[in-house]
Design brief:
The protein has 425 residues and is α/β, with parallel strands linked by helices. It has two domains: 6-175 and 324-422, 4-Layer Sandwich (Purple Acid Phosphatase, chain A, domain 2), CATH 3.60.21; 187-298, no CATH class. It has helices at residues 53-64, 96-106, 108-120, 138-144, 187-190, 199-211, 231-249, 300-306, 315-320, 325-337, and strands spanning 6-8, 18-20, 31-35, 69-75, 124-128, 149-150, 159-160, 168-171, 261-262, 271-272, 280-281, 288-289, 346-349, 356-361, 367-372, 385-390, 399-407, 413-422.
Length: 425
């Protein structure tokens, strides 16, 4: 076991992070850094990450010149294709590849810093897809970050397990979210292999609402009542309840009937209204139906199979708890720590923008650590956060350290919480 003394690593140029239990690294590259939810956009009139750009560039430069960082993992939502007002043509009558390049140009200093890391070849840089960049394919990523490693499994999803630390897994976390995981229920409309989930339409609506100042809501939504027509209809009733709350919380001046949502992506070509993704009830039969994502209730189990979810999430729980950060936190335990087929002791998600560290113990009493890596968007309660994983540094120790950190305005680094984890040898 490692000795219990505090020493300095040399992660940064100007600043250092204290890690309990780490002996002198002697400038050996071993640290794994994880950042997520950068949400880099194409237009500064609505992008969520603008004020934090310079800080992110400085952070990446410090990573570049650190002698002990081995890997940098981007755990999803690098590019934001969702946070776009409803009326905007996302691709501006061009292609997704063109859009990705516009994002890179709009955030040139950041992508230059990423590319410097990749070109140097000293630090492995790995990209894992998130839900806001769920449609961004490998060719798109390589067009702006040539040579970056990618961790993908199902279309729109990925998980990264470092080869020399198999007890760690890093993914965005949207795999376990009913509204954000890849969804195939629109394929009857698109006649393509579409995967865009309903959370995309909520985000477009919410973006417009935010841009408009979240004006007072004078729109009366059509009421849907619970019927006695079976479990699937109950699912659509619960689905409507969630939409009802979201639309009430994020009203838009356009109302719910105007077809103002421009698509032109993932096989969708029409203009849509909020009513198109809001469940409706037949006044005579009481039957609840929906236009977009029709079948999303019936297909939930199959959708989880397609998305390689190890432990199925019950439908009612998946719908009603989707907006809760704690639900994703729970999935780290359910999908990995309590799963008899999993050997993971460290799980790192992003997605919720709520940075935190949660520890549990397995049946043998060994510690397991879950970390949410947080976000770099400007307006967040806690922003500019990242995770440092320090694997066992030599054959004489079986202890890894997981540290949640925050990057400061002056390049200083604040350690928010650190945990030691015993790793099998």
């Amino acid at each position: 076991m490692a000795s219990k003394k505090s020493v300095k690593t040399s992660f940064t140029v100007e600043s250092n992070i204290d890690h309990e239990g780490i002996s002198d690294l002697n400038n050996e590259r071993s640290l794994i850094l994880i950042i997520s939810d950068l949400h880099l956009g194409a237009d500064d009139t609505y992008t969520e990450t603008k004020q934090n750009r310079d800080a992110l560039v400085n952070f990446l430069k410090q990573v570049r010149y650190s002698p002990d960082v081995k890997e940098l993992v981007i755990a999803g939502d690098l590019i934001d294709e969702w946070f776009v007002p409803m009326h905007v043509d996302t691709f501006n009558r061009k292609t997704q590849r063109d859009f990705v390049k516009v994002v890179a140009e709009n955030n040139k200093s950041i992508f230059d810093a990423f590319n410097d890391l990749i070109k140097d070849g000293n630090i492995e840089v790995t990209y894992v897809p998130g839900n806001h960049d769920i449609l961004i394919n490998s060719g798109d990523i390589q067009s702006i970050l040539p040579g970056i490693s990618e961790a993908r499994d199902v279309k729109g999803l990925g998980a990264y397990v470092p080869p020399d630390l198999p007890e760690l897994i890093i993914e965005h976390g949207h795999r376990y979210n009913f509204f954000c995981a890849p969804d195939f229920s629109n394929r009857t409309i698109t006649q393509t292999e579409s995967i865009l989930p309903p959370g995309y339409f909520f985000t477009r609506m919410a973006t417009s609402s935010v841009i408009e100042g979240r004006r007072e809501n004078n729109v009366k939504l059509p009421v849907v009542h619970k019927n006695e027509l079976g479990a699937e209809q109950l699912g659509y009733f619960l689905y409507w309840n969630v939409w009802n709350e979201l639309i009430t919380e994020f009203p838009v001046k356009e109302g719910i009937e105007k077809k103002v949502i421009k698509t032109g992506l993932d096989g969708l070509t029409d203009f849509y209204s909020i009513n198109d993704f809001l469940p409706q009830q037949d006044p005579e039969t009481g039957y609840i139906d929906v236009k977009l994502h029709n079948g999303i209730i019936e297909n939930w189990d199959e959708r989880q199979d397609n998305n390689l979810v190890p432990i199925k999430i019950p439908l009612e729980e998946a719908i009603l708890k989707a907006a809760m950060a704690s639900h994703l936190d729970d999935q780290s335990r359910i999908q990995f720590f309590e799963n008899p087929d999993s050997d993971k002791k460290i799980v790192i998600f992003g997605h919720t923008h709520e940075a935190r560290v949660i520890t549990t113990k397995n049946k043998e009493g060994q510690k397991q650590v879950y970390v949410n890596s947080g976000t770099w968007i400007d307006k967040n309660k806690c922003t500019k956060t990242f995770v440092v994983v320090s694997p066992p540094i030599n054959e004489d120790t079986d202890t890894a350290f997981v540290t949640l950190c925050q990057y400061g305005a002056k390049g200083d680094i604040k350690k928010l919480k650190s945990e030691a984890v015993q790793i099998s040898k």
